[in-house]
User: Which sequence fits this backbone?
């Protein structure tokens, strides 16, 4: 049975990934860490080992890996796109510092390593429609720069040291568990919260802004399935395009109004978020992920909307 370490388990991905990993591999085989352990959900705290860990300190990671005989690391530590633009050095130091530490620890202890990449790894020179798996990557944000550097560095550690590195270029992720954390695509989470609470919603992106999206359950399954995939079948490693749906603000608004006909959305574009969104793909070609390890998302916009509204209503309207 695998012994797994999750770094950044209190974040948007980590909050759900940790519990799914414990479901699959057993509560006692998944160690959850965060810089501030109090950020971890009650469910995570009560179901298994939870520890404080500063991922920018390699010694802290190494001690946990050694103490708990870890053989797989999920490195989820990052400062998201719009937030990182407000403090570029913090975005670089957290994103690259944590990754380099994980790579070195993984090399020393012969552990596999998963690190999310992002559509942010692309830029305005990238083909926006059906963005190829292998294409030009010249991002204009520090978040994107860290993701491209991370992909290259992870490939280097695989080729040079044999570290089993794997990664996914996630689109915008939509979750009903953890609130948004400063990403450009977070409007697609915020809008559901507003609809359930009966509030009007002010969209920070302009009409027609098309972006790739994925519901968190599909993202979690994709990460685990990639880590379980037969290494001999992986032509690519760092990093696979994956997506499930693409829509603009009008489409998600219209879908929500099928269930909440009185819901009102207006537009007030945020200059920074709009600039970032305009440089990202409208939709990615994920055929390599489908061919090499069987990626197959379950949720489209309609199915996701039903589930989001139901789950949030149960939690927010108690």
Assistant:
């Amino acid at each position: 049975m695998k012994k797994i370490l999750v770094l950044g388990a209190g974040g948007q991905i980590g909050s759900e990934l940790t519990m799914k990993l414990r479901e699959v591999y057993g509560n006692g085989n998944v160690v959850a860490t965060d810089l501030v352990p109090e950020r971890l959900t009650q469910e995570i705290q009560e179901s298994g080992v939870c520890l404080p860990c500063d991922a920018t300190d390699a010694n802290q990671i190494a001690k946990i890996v050694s103490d708990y005989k870890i053989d797989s690391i999920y490195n989820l530590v990052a400062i998201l796109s719009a937030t990182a633009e407000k403090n570029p050095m913090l975005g670089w130091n957290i994103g690259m510092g944590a990754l380099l530490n994980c790579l070195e620890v993984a090399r020393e202890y012969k552990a596999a390593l998963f690190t999310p990449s992002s559509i942010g790894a692309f830029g305005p020179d990238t083909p926006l429609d059906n963005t190829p798996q292998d294409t030009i990557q010249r991002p204009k944000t520090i978040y994107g720069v860290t993701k491209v550097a991370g992909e290259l560095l992870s490939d280097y550690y695989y080729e040079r040291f044999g570290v089993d590195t794997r990664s996914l270029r996630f689109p915008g992720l939509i979750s009903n568990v953890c609130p948004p954390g400063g990403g450009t695509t977070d409007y697609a989470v915020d809008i559901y919260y507003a609809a359930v609470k009966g509030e009007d919603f002010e969209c920070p992106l302009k009409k027609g802004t098309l972006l790739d999206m994925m519901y968190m359950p599909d993202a979690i399954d994709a990460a685990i399935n990639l880590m379980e995939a037969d290494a001999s079948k992986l032509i690519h490693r760092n990093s696979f395009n994956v997506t499930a749906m693409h829509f603009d603000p009008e489409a998600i608004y219209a879908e929500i109004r099928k269930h909440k006909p009185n819901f009102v959305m207006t537009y007030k574009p945020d200059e920074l978020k709009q600039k970032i969104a305009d440089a990202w793909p409208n939709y990615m070609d994920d055929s390599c992920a489908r061919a090499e390890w069987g990626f197959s998302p379950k949720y489209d916009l309609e199915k996701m909307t039903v589930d989001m509204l139901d789950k949030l209503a149960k939690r927010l309207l108690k």
The chain has a mean pLDDT of 95.
